[in-house]
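task queued by scheduler; priority normal; single chain, no ligands, no partner chains; default sampling; output format set to structure tokens
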Amino acid sequence: MSFFNSIGRSMSRTPRGPKRSPTPTSSTFSSDMPPPPVPSSPVTPGVQKPLYLCSPFVEAALVKGNFKTIVVLPKYVDIMEWVAVNVFDFYTNLNEFYGVISECCTQQSCPTMSAGPHLNYTWINQDRKSVHLAAPTYIDYVMTWIQNLLDDENVFPTKSGHDFPQSFPSTVKHVYRQLLRVFAHIYHAHYSQILHLRSEPHFNSLFAHFLAFGREYELLDIKDVKGAANSPVGTGMLWEKWREMGILEG
């Protein structure tokens, strides 16, 4: 279903409940868990395949089968509300994962927002210039920006009788692109910490759900998932692997 094509008919919808709540998951960690060890440097080209592409880690998941079935718009549910609540959940769960491994993502260990051996994301500053930031700074900017959007009643309305703005689809697509970058960095630089926590089934399922939902509602561009030929995104190979396994659709 095209999220953008449906916006016209979705702007007038039935009144909603006063509040959304995140979908409960088993990806929440204990606050007293000891911090994992500092990660080693990201894998260099030609040395070895990333751990997240290796068996049995690439097959680890909480959800078996194709994710298409859990992203389809439920009957009688407004598409705007469906997208909003799922984006809220993706943000909440990803933020929890990052909070657990954040002690290993420092200015020293991650001086750039890396997502592949030859890919470092840049941030657009107030002067509209692309600047390189350390990964923890970049991610803090992203999460703060998204949290402010979620708290803005004019962007993510929660009160009955308040409609979503016309700009909502484009705003959500921008949010999705930034969340994808956070996922990509964690897979590239911190997957060893995910394994240390034995949470690869949880994290893989969250990311596969995120990818399937993004493709279903046209919130993700393939070029963002895979990257350029000379600077590929590491998780682009994971996307292809999961497609081969039948977890994701093309």
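post-processing summary
- Strands lie at 113-116, 119-121, 123-124, 130-131, 227-228, 231-232.
- DSSP finds eight helices and six strands in the chain.
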